C-alpha cells in the first residue's frame, strides 16, 4: 500500500470544523491520520504543503463534463480549480439510460459527443469512467432522457403505463448508483412534463434521501417564484430534498424564496456561479419552443424555407427583442461560443451583430444560417444589460444553501469562462478579497455540502477513514485567469491535487495517473459525536 504525507499545511477539514495546522497521512486511497509532526512510514512520499490550505477536493454540483472529462485539457481545467468530483446528468438531458442518441443530437451543443457510452444503463455509463480519468464523475438520472425513452417528443401528459415505465427507469438508475434526478423544464421534452408526473418520477429517490435537481421552468431572474413554487410542490409530494440549478435570481429574492421553501417543510439548496453572463444553445433563444420540440430534420426544413423564415422574422423575433434579459439590441449581447459547421470556424468569439456584418446579412439571417449549417449544434454566451454587482452575488453565495456549481460547458472554441474559472473566482473574489465567505465556509459550500446532498460517500471532509481527495490551495495566489475574452486560460494557485490518495496534479501539471471513475451514491459513517448526513441508506 502506497503512503504519502502532506507536511506543514493548514488543514480545513470541512463539516463546519475550524482549520488547524497539521500533517496528513494518506495510506492507499484513505486518510489514515491527521496531526502535528507525523512520522512518515518507511517508503512514504512527502509532499511539502508549505503553509498552503489543505482542503477536501471540491465538488462541482452542476457540470456538463460527462463526455468532455476524457479530454486531458478538460481534466487539467477541473483539477487546477481543486475539483475532484463533478456532478453530471444535469438539466434533464444526458446519455443514460438508453443508447445516448437523443442527448448526442439534441444536447450536442451542451454536452458534446460521448466517446464510449453506447448504453443502456446508468451503471454502464459510470463503469466507463473507471481507470480512464483522474477524477470522479457522479450522475443524476435525467428525467427528460427518461421521458424520451418512453414517449419520444410527445407533448401530451404521460399515460399511467408510461408514467410507471418512466418511474422504473429512474429506479433502475438509482439502483445503479445515480445521485438524484434532474429536470430541464425549458428543454425538450422536459417542458412537457407536469408537476405530478415529475413527483412520481422522484419517488424512487425518497428512500435514499437523494435530491430532485431542477432547471426550473422559465424566468429565473424575473419570475423565480413560479419555478420555486413548482419545485417545492414536487419535493413535498415526493418527500425529497430540492436543489435548484444555476439559481441566478437577485440575492434578497433568493433568500426569501429559500426561507419560504423551508417553511413548506422542504429541504432546499441551490448552485450559482460568479459570472453575470449565461450560456446555452442558440436554438433556445432564436427559435420558438414549439419548433425546437420537433425532430432536428423537421426544424432544418423549416429553416431552409424562405416562407417559414419570414414567419419567424415577423412573429417570433419581436418576442426575442422583448426578452427582459436581452432587448432590442440582442445581436450585440449574444456571442458565438461553438459551432460544429467548419465553414463558420472563423466566427466563435464574435457577436451575432459582428457575424452579420461580416456576412453582409442582418442578425436574424445570421442566427438562422448558423443553426442550419451546424444542424442546431451551436451554443452562445449571452450578456445582459443589468450587470449584477459583486455585492449582490456575494450575498447570494453567502446563503447556507448555496453549493458551488460552474454549469461548465466545455464544447466550443470560445466557451464561457465559468468552466475554467468558477471555483477559483469564488476563492479569489468572494473569500479572499470581499470576505463574503470565510475559508472554512468556502470549503463547506464547495465540498462538504455537495458531498452530503449527493451522497458522495466519504468525501467532503478530511478525517481518518475519509477518501483521500485533497487539494492544496495557495490562498494569496489562487485566482481565475479565464475571461470572456480569453476563456481557455487555466486557474492559478492550486497546483497539487490527490484523488483517492494518488497525486493527479503536481506542480500544476497532470501526472498521468488515472485513479478516478464513476462515483456511486453512498452515505458515509457519521463522525464521532455528530449525526450522519441526511439519508438513511447506502446503495
TrEMBL record:
- Any idea which GO molecular function terms this record carries? hydrolase activity, acting on carbon-nitrogen (but not peptide) bonds
Annotated region Disordered: where? 515-539
Composition-biased stretches, type Pro residues, lie in 525-539
Domain Amidohydrolase: from-to ranges: 46-504
Q: Would you tell me the protein name for this molecule?
A: N-acyl-D-aspartate/D-glutamate deacylase
* Species annotation: Brachybacterium ginsengisoli
Amino acid at each position: 500500500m502506497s503512503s504519502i504525507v502532506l507536511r506543514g499545511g493548514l488543514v480545513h477539514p470541512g463539516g463546519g470544523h475550524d482549520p488547524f495546522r497539521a500533517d496528513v497521512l494518506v495510506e492507499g486511497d484513505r486518510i489514515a491520520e491527521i496531526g502535528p509532526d507525523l512520522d512518515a512510514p518507511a517508503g512514504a512520499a512527502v509532499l511539502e504543503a508549505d503553509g498552503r490550505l489543505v482542503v477536501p477536493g471540491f465538488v462541482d454540483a452542476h457540470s456538463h463534463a460527462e463526455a468532455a472529462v476524457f479530454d486531458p485539457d478538460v481534466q487539467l481545467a477541473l483539477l487546477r480549480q481543486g475539483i475532484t468530483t463533478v456532478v453530471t446528468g444535469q438539466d434533464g438531458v444526458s446519455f443514460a439510460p438508453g443508447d445516448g442518441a437523443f442527448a448526442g443530437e439534441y444536447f450536442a451543443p451542451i454536452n458534446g459527443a460521448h466517446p464510449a457510452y453506447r448504453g443502456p444503463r446508468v451503471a454502464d455509463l459510470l463503469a466507463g469512467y473507471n481507470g480512464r480519468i483522474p477524477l470522479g464523475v457522479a450522475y443524476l438520472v435525467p428525467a427528460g432522457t427518461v421521458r424520451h425513452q418512453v414517449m419520444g417528443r410527445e407533448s401530451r401528459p404521460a399515460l399511467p403505463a408510461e408514467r410507471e415505465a418512466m418511474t422504473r427507469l429512474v429506479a433502475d438508475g438509482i439502483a445503479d448508483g445515480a445521485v438524484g434526478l434532474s429536470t430541464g423544464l425549458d428543454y425538450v421534452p422536459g417542458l412537457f412534463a407536469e408537476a405530478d408526473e415529475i413527483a412520481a418520477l422522484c419517488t424512487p429517490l425518497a428512500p435514499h434521501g437523494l435530491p430532485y435537481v431542477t432547471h426550473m421552468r422559465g424566468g429565473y431572474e424575473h419570475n423565480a417564484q413560479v419555478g420555486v413554487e413548482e419545485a417545492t410542490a414536487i419535493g413535498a409530494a415526493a418527500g425529497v430534498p430540492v436543489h435548484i440549478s444555476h439559481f441566478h435570481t437577485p440575492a434578497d429574492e433568493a433568500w426569501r424564496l429559500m426561507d419560504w421553501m423551508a417553511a413548506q417543510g422542504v429541504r432546499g439548496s441551490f448552485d450559482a456561479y460568479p459570472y453575470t453572463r449565461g450560456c446555452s444553445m442558440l436554438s433556445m433563444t432564436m427559435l420558438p419552443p414549439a419548433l425546437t420540440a420537433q425532430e432536428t430534420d423537421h426544424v432544418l426544413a423549416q429553416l431552409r424555407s424562405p416562407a417559414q423564415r419570414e414567419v419567424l422574422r415577423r412573429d417570433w423575433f419581436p418576442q426575442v427583442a422583448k426578452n427582459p434579459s436581452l432587448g432590442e439590441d440582442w445581436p450585440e449581447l449574444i456571442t458565438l461560443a461553438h459551432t460544429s459547421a467548419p465553414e463558420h470556424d472563423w466566427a466563435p468569439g464574435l457577436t451575432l451583430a459582428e457575424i452579420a456584418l461580416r456576412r453582409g446579412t442582418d442578425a436574424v439571417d445570421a442566427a438562422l444560417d448558423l443553426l442550419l449549417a451546424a444542424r442546431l449544434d451551436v451554443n452562445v454566451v449571452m450578456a445582459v444589460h443589468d450587470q449584477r454587482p459583486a455585492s449582490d452575488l456575494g450575498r447570494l453565495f453567502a446563503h447556507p444553501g448555496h453549493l458551488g456549481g460552474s454549469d461548465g460547458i466545455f464544447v466550443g472554441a470560445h466557451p464561457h469562462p465559468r468552466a475554467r474559472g468558477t471555483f477559483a473566482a469564488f476563492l479569489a473574489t468572494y473569500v479572499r478579497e470581499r470576505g463574503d465567505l470565510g475559508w472554512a465556509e468556502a470549503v463547506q459550500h464547495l465540498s462538504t455540502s455537495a458531498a452530503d446532498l449527493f451522497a458522495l460517500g466519504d468525501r467532503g471532509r478530511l478525517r481518518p477513514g475519509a477518501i483521500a481527495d485533497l487539494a492544496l490551495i495557495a490562498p494569496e495566489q489562487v485566482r481565475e485567469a479565464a475571461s470572456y475574452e480569453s476563456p481557455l486560460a487555466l486557474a492559478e494557485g492550486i497546483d497539487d491535487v490527490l484523488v483517492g490518495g494518488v497525486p493527479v496534479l503536481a506542480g500544476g501539471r497532470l501526472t498521468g495517473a488515472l485513479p478516478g471513475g464513476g462515483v456511486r451514491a453512498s452515505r458515509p459513517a457519521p463522525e464521532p459525536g455528530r449525526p450522519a448526513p441526511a439519508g438513511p441508506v447506502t446503495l
